Amino acid sequence: MTTARFVLALGVALAMAAPAAAQDFQPKEKGLLMLNARVSGVLTDAEDPILTSGGAASGLNAKVGDDVMPTLGLTYFLTDHLAVEAIAGTTKHEVKAVGPGTDVKVHETWVLPPVVSLQYHFAPQGKVSPYVGAGINYMIFYGGENENGFKVDIDNGFGYALQAGVDVALQGPWSANLDIKKVFFETDASVNGGALKSKVKLDPWVVSAGLGYKF
What we know:
- The chain is mainly β.
- Helices cover 7% and strands 64% of the residues.
- The protein is built from 1 helix and 15 strands; from the N terminus they run αβββββββββββββββ.
- The chain has one helix at 3-17; strands spanning 33-43, 47-52, 57-64, 67-77, 82-88, 91-99, 102-112, 115-121, 128-146, 152-154, 157-169, 174-184, 186-191, 196-201, 205-214.
- An 8-stranded antiparallel β-barrel has the order 1-4-5-8-9-11-12-15.
- Strand 11 (157-169) and strand 12 form a beta hairpin.
- The protein is elongated and about 60 Å long.
- The two termini are 35 Å apart.
């Protein structure tokens, strides 16, 4: 599924939820905790050159696939407008070597990309409350499986993220949520002990929709 189609599908789902918003709803305020359970699409267009150990072009690119996962986000409101959110979830991604006449799966890996962000919430007392945020993340690659005779190593590391979203109040403490993050992350991958290498800019979009509950 392309990024545009995924965003459109989530937007339609949120639009359908909005008319259900009731008069009796719990607004955002200082000291409030909000738990969001979401379905998230991790969408990356990463396709970066694979080089030899001497730095020469191999004619191939490293291509990373997309995935969809459940995620949990916990938000604490420092003030009515300012909040800190931590999210966690894990995805599995396919890594291919692609080029003219070549499309070979070389690796499959799990990724744990926790993100902590500082958010500013507009209209915290309103039924529709958009927000923006920025934060950091740490990419952890684990459970890797090598394919077709290749041995691939991928470095963990820090990145940063920008965020925008909206909460639509439903009945009582419940809300619908649409959230979009752009994560900026670059990693080094080596193949067969460094015989081949690639600096991969993952830079995924993380597009999510779900339900929130306020405590």
